[in-house]
Amino acid sequence: MIEQKFVLRDDEIPRQWYNLAADLPSPMEPLQTPDGSPVTPEMLAPIFPMNLIEQEVSQERWIDIPEPLLALLSSYRPAPLKRAIRLEKALGTPARIYYKDESTSPAGSHKPNSALAQAWYNKEFGTKRLTTETGAGQWGSALCYASALVGLECKVFMVRISFDQKPYRKILMETWGGTCIASPSNETAAGRSFLEQFPDTPGSLGMAISEAIEAAVSDKSGDTKYSLGSVLNHVLLHQTIIGLEAKKQLALAGVKKPDIVIGCAGGGSNFAGLSFPFVNDKIHGAEITIIPVEPQSCPSLTKAPFAYDFGDTTGMTPLLPMHTLGHNFVAPPLHAGGLRYHGMAPLVSQATVEGLLEPESIPQMECYAAAIQWARTEGTICAPETSHAIAATIRQAKQAKEEGKEKVILFGYSGHGLLDLSGYDAYLNGRLEDYEIPEEEFRKSIESSLEGLPKAAEKRTGKW
Ligand SMILES: *Cc1c(COP(=O)(O)O)cnc(C)c1O
Questions:
Q1: Is 156 in contact with 105 (CB distance < 8 Å)?
Q2: What is the distance in A from the centroid of ligand 1 to the CA of 340?
Q3: How many A from CA of 374 to the centre of ligand 1?
Q4: Considering Cα of 65, then 70, then 76, then 79, what sign does the dihedral take?
Q5: How remote is the CA of residue 220 from the centroid of ligand 1, in Å?
Q6: H helix runs in 292-358, sequence order
């Protein structure tokens, strides 16, 4: 019988996170303020606790995971590595397809890996309350779960379109003791101003971030902090536990190195978590094709410029050096809500500029077709975000077949889609179509968003 599951014992869980910032051949550009001066840790202190700010700016290669946090993570980790033998067979490919299954966490995705870490460090710091935003509801539910376990209050601003499309995510958040409101809301000045300008807006992650940051910093007691579910260095850091486990598990499967590593990328955290340990290998000479996959209708890495831009719509965050569609961009209401962000993690962006990554964008219909093929071969129902990684994997497996090559593909199964069935319903009943942003809209968003902001230098060594 072909082995399909590669599992680690509890005591084999990685005890350190890997920080790519220590190894990038051309270092990441610093965060800046709009007048072009660098952002200091003190400037971030009203928003985040200092222990997480230290991780955000750290240049250490390995960072210890505190023992009590490891105990929390161990409640559902190590996550299994599996082999998709039925999909391989259906495709008739000589490629071997392995996937890291992050759908087994309590919230059903990779998000608890950072939610637990952020909640734990906040609790240590003395924070009493967290605010955050959520797109599809995955991050909001993960943070409510983590807050419940460490003993914090949690308030979530959920993008309006998802709030309406995905009522069950709100129920999860409330079950874990959190509060969830639709964004834009009347609770913040930012929200009220969005509603005044765009009364019918579906909302966006950028707007919800503005609201959540305002809600945190306007509590002058300092007891409320803000928490972000992706994009920032410390979030990507927490997710590297995925790739570090996967490496040990591939060794169990007798694989020395994968030829191709694939992950879907919204803000970049699950992709980075899986791939950064392999990016490190690539920097040190290994031949690996590493592919972040994004929706064709929200193509930051494949189509947008690398520039300094705000992480939110009103400009409350520092300027981040990243591939960005512009902070004014409102993505079309596609079903992969977790991939609707205008920007991309600075570390993923810098690795792309360096040539270490080979991003792809895939239209929605191809992704749903892949999700259906997956469900009818491997059996599980993937999140709409995850379907992008599966679609890219199928493309690679078909190419391996054409070339007659026995490639090893590793992809990130970032989450299940059991609370996202409306997208499947739309696809199965012919109500879904592809959508490409009209050039004009794309150009306008970028121009209006980036006007007057400092430029970011595209630094690369030229080795890749
Ligand atoms: C949130 C989410 C994503 C996208 O976020 P990243 O930070 O890019 O990982 C992808 N897949 C699932 C299942 C998600 O919940």
A1: no
A2: 10
A3: 18
A4: positive
A5: 32
A6: 300-303, 346-353
Residue 214 CB contacts under 8 Å (≥ 6 apart), including other chains: 188, 189, 190, 316
pLDDT by residue for the chain (464 residues), tens only, comes to 999 999 999 999 999 999 999 999 999 989 999 988 999 999 999 999 999 999 999 999 999 999 999 999 999 999 999 999 999 999 999 999 999 999 999 999 999 999 999 999 999 999 999 999 998 899 999 999 999 999 999 999 999 988 998 889 999 999 999 999 999 999 999 999 999 999 999 998 889 999 999 999 999 999 999 999 999 999 999 999 999 999 999 999 999 999 999 999 999 999 999 999 999 999 999 999 999 999 999 999 999 999 999 998 888 899 999 999 999 988 777 677 778 889 999 999 999 999 999 999 999 999 999 999 999 999 999 999 999 999 999 999 999 999 999 999 999 999 999 999 989 999 999 999 998 888 898 899 999 999 999 999 999 999 99
Distances (CA, A) of 242 to 18, 103, 109, 139, 417: 10, 12, 12, 17, 19
CA of 238 to the centre of ligand 1 (A): 14
Percent helix, strand, coil in the chain, to 5, is 45, 15, 40
Mutate to test the pocket of ligand 1, among 100, 110, 156, 382 (most ligand atoms within 8 A of CB): 110
Lookup: tokens for 411: 């992809």
Burial class (CB within 10 angstroms; exposed 0-12, middle 13-18, buried 19+) of 146:
buried
Compute CA distances 158 → 185, 274, 338, whole Å. 9, 26, 11
Q: How many whole angstroms separate alpha carbon 391 and alpha carbon 362?
A: 8
Quote the pTM value.
0.97
In the chain, the domains with their CATH numbers are: 5-13+77-108+233-450 (3.40.50.1100), 22-62+110-226 (3.40.50.1100)
Cβ-count burial of 433 within 10 angstroms (0-12 exposed, 13-18 middle, 19+ buried)? exposed
Helix axes 269-283, 241-252, angle to 10 degrees: 60
Measuring from each residue's beta carbon to the nearest atom of ligand 1, which residues come in under 6 Å?
109, 111, 138-139, 230, 264-271, 338-339, 383, 385-386, 414-415
